[in-house]
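Hey, can you fold this?
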Amino acid sequence: MNILISNDDGISAPGILAAKQAVEDLANVTVVAPDKNNSSVGRRLTLFKHLKINSCKLKDESLAYSVSGSPADSVVVGADYVMEEKPDLVIAGVNQGVNISCDITSSGTVCAALEAVSLGIPAIAVSLFVDPKTAYKQDENGEWYVDYDFTLTKKVLHDLVLKIKNEGFPQGVDLFNLNVPSNYESEDVKITHLANKMLDKKVIDNTDEEKSEIFNYHLDENQESDGLIMIVSDLVKEYPKGSDGYALLVEKRPSLTPLNANMTYQELNDW
């Protein structure tokens, strides 16, 4: 079995090594990812423009490739240029964040998986939801850092790929969207459907007192903020039972959502 791994957090992100470690005993693994963070770029493609590809090393000293493009670009480059044969499976992740609901079409991680499907390759998008209440820790010098514990994510991803290797994908499923909580209360995977949305969005400017800290954080020193706006978001707090958001955030267990890339609605009858 040959697996291509990519992500949207960039080649240096710890999640891509975690994905490789999860499945390297099951397959030949090739890693091709963007050279920098490409979160929330959706399925952006760089067509008829030059891209830079470089070989590099992951933290385990294994060979990988960085691409000066998007997650979807990296999948195309990996499958059509780096690998000698088309991969049997593409894994996008492990994303350091959450990718749930119908909002997944903005996700670079999920759209890397969708790009794989367009190439005729089944795919898995996998994300680790990091709970800020438990994941942010201080070192001995008092500096804050994020503790990315990929232990359960790697186990679930390994078991999923092993099942796919032995049995194939279910009929009609093009890709799986897997989300695993860092503060899990159950290791049991729940098969889910997409919630309606993940984020409540709003636009702010320099008159917004409630979110002034985040608005001003991105300003350069002495930079004028008049005429500038920012789209901000908050995670939705309520989700219907059976949805990916409910499993992940309410039941605090891994959510596995089977998806089909064909978004056609089939039954209009006599509309």
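Oh, and this one too while you're at it.
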Amino acid sequence: MTQLQLTHDEYRLFTITPDDGSAIGNVSARARLGFPKNRYGRAKDGLLAKHLILRAPGGGGAIKRAPAADESDIEMDSNRGIAIVTPPVAESNLYRPILETMRGAWAVDRGFEPIAVEDVANLGSRKTGGKWTRPDLVAVGVTTFDFVPDLLFDVITFEVKPADQVNVLAVYEALAHRRSATHAFVALHIPAVLSDSLKKGVQQVVATAAEHGIGVISFAEPSDYETWEVLLDAVRVSSPPEQVDAFVRRNLSLEGQDRVSDAVKKLRRGVPLTPAADVVAS
């Protein structure tokens, strides 16, 4: 079965079309999107051609959602007989499910024993070192290996971008806070229906990230690790210890700082960490 693909404009138009089967006028829809007539017309014609909307009566014309074609893998609401596409997700709403995945499947897959994994994007007026020095998410922990006895203490930062912000600016934001970390990733939300239309933007992000050692992760569903893909792994850097120490102090919660401090003391004594007890969920 071929994955149905939408352009970004088609996606935005579809998500504002009422999911109860009622109609929305073309004038109202165009005003909500802020599209000029030609741009709106292309998006509408694309959805009509893909049988996701139907024309409806109304002054100036109207549209409504159509029953999904059998071969489409857009989600189908069988009770109402209409196609469903998940609406755009605000960046802040991506943080919690990403954190849960990072603490679980991502950490296991990476050989990473997390100590503190936190949302640090919303620290209010707390001083964090200047523009772009505050990441969205931070994972502090220890990386282990199958055939090497060494443990690596890692501070990994994440710059999260929703589907409508997939551009190379994210790389430079990640690069700014990598100065006080060991790794930095850009995490891009790429819904399945937008994977084709966002492909060029993703490629540009990966190409730019490769020049600077920044990692790139894409995901369709933040809570489903099976939809995550590491497009480019982050290069580990040795940031000055005093900068890393200051970064943890400025950005982590007090509870997170305490857990990191306790874990460092254990590591100095050669005491193994117990991830289930040591991870802080913020």
